[in-house]
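The records we work with from here on pair a chain with its fold. Taken together, the C-alpha cells spell out the fold as the letters spell out the chain. To see the layout at work, look at the sequence and C-alpha cells printed below.
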Amino acid sequence: MRRCIGCYESKPQSELMRLTYNGSAFIADTDGRNDGRGIYLCRNAECIEKSFKRKAWNRICRSGVNREEIMRVIEGALNEN
C-alpha cells in the first residue's frame, strides 16, 4: 500500500503512478526501479490538482517547483500506462 500525495488515501501500489525525485529533477518511474525519493499519485486530474494546492511538491523537494515541468512528467507517465 502506498499513499497518494494528492488525496492522502492509501491504495495498492498498482493503482498509483510513481514518480521519483533525485534531488534535481522529477522522473516518471514506470518500472519502480529508479533511484530517488518515490512519489505516488492517483491517475486522475483531481488528485493532481490537489497535490499542487497542498504544496506537496514543494515539501518533497524542499524548495519551489516548476509546475510545467512536473505536469510534463505526469503526462508522460499517464501516456506510458
In short: The radius of gyration is 11 Å. The longest helix spans residues 67-80. The helical segments are 45-53, 56-61, 67-80. The beta strands are 2-3, 10-11, 16-21, 26-28, 37-42.
